[in-house]
């Protein structure tokens, strides 16, 4: 297991290098003159802002050198300064990251809570009317734009006392209950589409497992039906669901960006959007890098969980 | 026996009917719209839906007819989603075929590149690209298309790779068939089923991505109506004029559902492995 972990850890290094290259070079596609023009509209650029401009479009140095300097700065924890405020970018990101992560985790929890039971029930009643309704409902869930759902929730529940956070966000450590109450609808808006995905995967995976011989054996032994379904079938059917959950965590995080805007939540998504509206490229660059890195790490953790849950994966890998 | 298989699958047929409905709406909107979709009317601001006034979906904050704007926005959403999917599919499939067919070093480099693009959540990547390219309809197509490249590359590469070593390919080769013959006559037709399913599902996600980008003000720019930017401007008034937000959203949901139904049904029809599971 130790060797497998090390191997997987090493394998994310080239991916992270590739991600940083893409972020770096995409930002350099912006014409530098456009940026200088934009800076010209400011009364007086502070030394930090001038320094940031030089880092972004430094014409005195070749691009590969700029890239290496940029990566070196990042590894030392210096993500650059905002062009608008002149403040360092990293503290702003770190102060807003927890809310976005909480939203993502809460929506993930809701999606699993809704998706897994519905998927199991659907698989037990395959090809009945209920299964059909579930399948169409699942497709409908996939078809709902998250931000529209969020807007409907704001319209419907804004008078319902504390459920809709309208500029009066309360942190988790100030009042956990009020915080969770406020994040319930935003998380539901993000998670409902994913609940549909989880339901479909659970259903298909359960259908496959339920045909296995050991399920028939368990039933033939006279085991309680509920025990067979939960401990024999679901335990094995859950593996593909773990994978799809991990690989879609980024989708939930992306959803958080839009939903924070609708509910006026002070998370990283809002920071990113305002940076985009104000053409504050160092901030955009840093946020994209942070989110992509998180996404790569989540995928890594998913792989590791999978390897713990299914020994065949790591044994096969080690045999190679 | 004469009806194509796709019509026997109720789910796929339902999807086709929905998509056909939107195509008819597009054709009608070319010849007739209830009102001028961009004409502002200060006397008709935020009228609730009513049959007597003719504004059956109501009017927006500039007095423009919501139904006419939805109809006019249909072609915008559909064209963006079709072109973005086509862009991503063509480039992605070419890359996937190249990687799968040639193998070796090419395979390694191309698939690593796909992995890296995959490391960005799709909405984030699209937002990032829009932030760099600037808000323009063409750039929406490009942004969504780039998001799709790795998905199509992976699917076609996997399909080609597993086909390549099959007996019938070896037989064709021993009969003297060259690479391009094998590619076009044997490999491409066989990887079509998973690609068709992916195209249908990609069309649905493209509609959602376009509407999210336009909602954030990064996509189609007003006064051109798109469902996303209608919802964006509805945000300011939806608390007392809910119809401005409800109907454009329903237009999105129904079309996306149509593509999802089609894709899901096609998967049943085209994927023989799933057909046997039943």
Question: Any overview of this molecule?
Answer:
The complex is a heterodimer of chains A (about 325) and B (about 280). Chain A has helices spanning about 1-25, 30-40, 45-55, 65-75, 90-125, 130-145, 145-155, 175-210, 215-220, 225-245, 250-260, 270-275, 280-310, 310-320. By secondary structure, chain A is an all-alpha fold. In chain A, helix 5 crosses helix 11 and helix 8 runs antiparallel to helix 11 (about 250-260). Chain B is mostly helical and about 280 residues long. In chain B, about 75% of the residues lie in helices and about 0% in strands. The mean pLDDT of chain B is about 85. At the A-B interface, helix 1, helix 6, helix 7, helix 11 and helix 12 of A face helix 4, helix 5, helix 8 and helix 10 of B.
Topology:
The complex is a heterodimer of chains A (320) and B (278).
Chain A: H1 2-27, H2 32-40, H3 47-57, H4 63-75, H5 89-124, H6 129-143, H7 146-157, H8 176-210, H9 213-220, H10 225-247, H11 249-262, H12 268-277, H13 281-309, H14 311-319
Chain B: H1 5-8, H2 10-31, H3 66-102, H4 104-118, H5 122-133, H6 137-164, H7 167-174, H8 179-215, H9 227-234, H10 243-270, H11 272-277
Helix pairs in contact in B: 2-3, 2-10, 3-4, 3-6, 3-8, 3-10, 4-6, 5-6, 6-8, 7-8, 8-9, 8-10, 9-10
């Amino acid at each position: 297991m130790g060797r497998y972990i090390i191997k997987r850890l090493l394998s994310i290094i080239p991916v992270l290098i590739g991600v940083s290259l893409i972020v770096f070079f995409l930002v350099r596609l912006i014409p530098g003159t456009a940026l200088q023009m934009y800076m010209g509209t400011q009364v007086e650029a502070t030394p930090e802002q001038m320094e940031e401009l030089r880092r972004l479009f430094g014409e005195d140095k070749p691009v590969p050198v700029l890239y290496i300097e940029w990566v070196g700065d990042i590894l030392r924890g210096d993500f650059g300064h905002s062009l608008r405020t002149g403040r360092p970018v990293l503290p702003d990101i770190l102060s807003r990251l927890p809310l976005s992560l909480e939203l993502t985790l809460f929506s993930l929890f809701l999606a699993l809570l809704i998706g897994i039971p519905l998927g199991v029930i659907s698989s037990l009643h395959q090809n009945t009317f209920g299964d059909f309704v579930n399948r169409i409902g699942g497709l409908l869930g996939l078809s709902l734009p998250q931000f529209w759902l969020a807007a409907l929730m704001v319209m419907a529940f804004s008078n319902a006392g504390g459920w809709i956070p309208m500029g009066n966000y309360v942190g988790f450590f100030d009042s956990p209950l009020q915080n969770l109450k406020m994040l319930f609808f935003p998380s539901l808006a993000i998670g409902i589409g994913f609940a549909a995905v989880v339901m479909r995967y659970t259903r298909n995976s359960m259908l496959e497992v339920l045909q296995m011989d050991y399920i028939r054996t368990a039933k033939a032994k006279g085991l309680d039906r509920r025990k067979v379904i939960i401990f024999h079938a679901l335990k094995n059917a859950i593996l593909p669901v773990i994978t799809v959950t991990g690989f879609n965590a980024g989708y939930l995080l992306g959803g958080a960006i839009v939903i924070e805007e609708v509910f006026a939540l002070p998370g990283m998504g809002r920071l990113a959007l305002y940076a985009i509206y104000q053409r504050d490229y160092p901030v955009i660059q840093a946020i994209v890098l942070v989110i992509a890195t998180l996404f790569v790490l989540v995928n890594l953790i998913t792989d590791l969980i999978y390897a713990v849950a299914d020994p065949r994966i790591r044994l096969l890998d080690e045999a190679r | 026996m004469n009806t194509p298989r796709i019509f026997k699958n109720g789910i796929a047929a339902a999807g086709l009917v929905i998509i056909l409905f939107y195509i008819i709406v597009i054709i009608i909107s070319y010849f007739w719209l209830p009102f001028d979709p961009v004409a502002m009317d200060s006397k008709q601001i935020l009228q609730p839906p009513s049959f007597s006034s003719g504004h059956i979906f109501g009017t927006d904050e500039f007095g423009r007819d919501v139904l006419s704007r939805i109809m006019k926005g249909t072609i915008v959403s559909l064209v963006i989603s079709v072109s973005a999917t086509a862009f991503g599919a063509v480039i992605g499939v070419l890359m996937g075929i190249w990687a799968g067919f040639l193998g070796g070093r090419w395979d390694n480099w191309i698939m690593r590149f796909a992995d890296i693009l995959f490391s960005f959540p799709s909405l984030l990547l699209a937002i990032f690209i829009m932030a760099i390219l600037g808000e323009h309809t063409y750039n929406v197509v490009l942004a969504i298309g780039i998001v799709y490249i790795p998905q199509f590359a992976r699917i076609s590469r996997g399909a080609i790779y597993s086909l390549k070593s099959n007996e019938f390919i070896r037989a064709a080769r021993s009969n003297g068939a060259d690479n391009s013959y094998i590619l076009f006559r044997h490999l491409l037709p066989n990887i079509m089923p998973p690609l068709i399913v992916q195209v249908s599902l990609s069309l649905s996600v493209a509609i959602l991505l376009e509407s999210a980008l336009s909602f954030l003000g990064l996509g189609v720019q007003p006064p051109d109506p798109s469902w996303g930017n209608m919802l964006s401007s509805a945000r300011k008034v939806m608390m007392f004029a809910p119809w401005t937000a409800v109907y454009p959203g329903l237009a999105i949901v129904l079309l996306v559902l149509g593509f999802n139904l089609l894709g899901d049904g096609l998967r049943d029809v085209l994927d023989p492995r799933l057909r046997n599971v039943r």
